[in-house]
Design a protein that fits this description.
The protein is of the alpha+beta class. Helices cover 33% and strands 30% of the residues. The chain contains four helices and seven strands, in the order H-E-E-H-E-E-E-E-H-E-H. Strands 2-1-3-6-7 form a five-stranded mixed sheet, sandwiched between helices. It has a two-stranded antiparallel ribbon with strand order 4-5.
Length: 141
């Protein structure tokens, strides 16, 4: 299934990737099922996971690209770019199918390397769960 990613989304992704701030930031996008186009839902700068969770709808899907401030046990701080595919179980069949069909290409174009976190319930997006997932999916120490 093919979809369109407008230049506005590509610009927001660059803004996210090259920002100077040392905090969390997220670009939340939604798929327009009728037009087969990705639209910006929200750009959250200097945000928390709780604020991201508040933005997620109860019965729809979102693609999230997150720049996450990760504190390592040895004192280092890194800012991995994390892909999160949010698709609530109450989402309609058309939304779920379209989201699944476009997921891989969206995160490829967003230049998210590695695995993409599959999220069904907003309350599962916690610091503990996210950091456990990031550390288990990394390709190098």
């Amino acid at each position: 299934m093919s979809f369109t990613m407008p230049d506005e989304i590509k610009d927001e992704l660059k803004k996210l990737r090259f920002r100077k701030s040392k905090s969390n930031a997220a670009l939340i996008c939604q798929m327009d099922v009728k037009k087969l186009e990705v639209r910006k839902d929200e750009f959250l700068d200097d945000t928390t996971l709780e604020e991201i969770v508040e933005e997620l709808p109860d019965a729809d899907a979102r693609f999230i690209v997150l720049s996450y401030e990760l504190h390592h046990d040895d004192g280092r701080v890194s800012y991995p770019i994390v892909g999160i595919n949010y698709c609530h179980p109450a989402s309609g069949d058309q939304v779920r199918v379209t989201s699944a069909a476009c997921r891989s290409r969206f995160f490829q174009e967003a230049e998210v390397s590695g695995k993409v976190l599959e999220l069904e319930e907003p309350e599962d997006l916690t610091k503990e769960n996210l950091e456990k997932w990031i550390l288990s999916s990394k390709t190098r120490p």
